[in-house]
Amino acid sequence: MLACMKIALTGGSGFLGRYVIRHLVDELGHQVVALTRRDDPAPDRQGLHWMQGDLADPASLDRLTDGADAVVHAGLMRGGDSFMDHPDDPVGYFDTNVLGTLRLLQSSTDRGINRLVFVSSGAVHQHVVQGLALDEDHPHRPGSFYGAAKASAEDLVHAYGLSGRLAAATVRPPTIYGVDDPISDSRWYALVKDLVDGKEVAATGGGKCVHAADVAKAIGLVLTAPQSKVAGQTFNCCDRFFSEVEVAQCVQSLGHTSARFTGPAKSAGHPMATEKIRSLGMEFGGTDLLRQTIKQLVQAAEVA
């Protein structure tokens, strides 16, 4: 792959998209053209150009892919306030998100683009098959339309990637955390705010997580890895299981020693295998990156 690429991006105005832009443009020096449905996108800046369009509109996807060296598909039309909400219009939801992925794959193929990376979700196997490793070959068993749409799109990416028509691959993160904008939308902010305010918190939750910056890093690795290693492949992208007890303990260690919480600490029942993405050179932020993030949330909560 080229040292400096022109990368077409969907989902650039979302939470993850902002981290992807920062990594691809500011850290790796690529040029990004980002698709947005917004009438008033952020202003263009060096290395970044916004283009108005929609996954449901083939013409805007053709404009997006025109002249691109690679594509990152992180866009999604939500069915409600949450990713997991059941859509009011299931047919329209699938048309935009699944057929939109197909439109993007075909547009990329028609233009001879070298690489496409699709961002999926651990929701594709929400119902885990007992006795099987939670690796990239684990059967798809989604329990939501969101998971079903991501699973269907993954299959399309496999079909294009394994056929040789397009070096398409999937990065599959579980829950993504990080500092959002506004910061109050960040994962764990409400928990941190209650602890900072001296409220007793039931810290009984937890989940498999990965920082948005690490997902962006994984995307960059898959974009530039040899085609033989990525075409038609899926790469789990999970740091590890983080419990709310661990988050609360971070808050305590950052000066709020009187923060009160009850457990027990939740633990992962099915760890997510990540050997494939690590084989490309991926290193996750782990406890240090969690602590950095919680420190930013604590600082925001202290002045809120």
UniProtKB/TrEMBL annotation:
Indicate the transmembrane segments per the record. none
Q: Which InterPro entries match?
A: Epimerase_deHydtase (IPR001509), Lipid_A_modif_metabolic_enz (IPR050177), NAD(P)-bd_dom_sf (IPR036291), Sc_DH/Rdtase_CS (IPR020904)
Q: Does Electron transport count among this protein's keywords?
A: no
Identify the Gene3D superfamilies for this entry: NAD(P)-binding Rossmann-like Domain
- UniProt entry keywords in alphabetical sequence: Isomerase
Which segments constitute the NAD-dependent epimerase/dehydratase domain? 7-238
One Pfam entry for this protein is: Epimerase
Tagged with keyword Transmembrane = no
Recorded GO molecular functions are: isomerase activity
Return the protein name. 3 beta-hydroxysteroid dehydrogenase/Delta 5-->4-isomerase
Organism equals Crateriforma conspicua
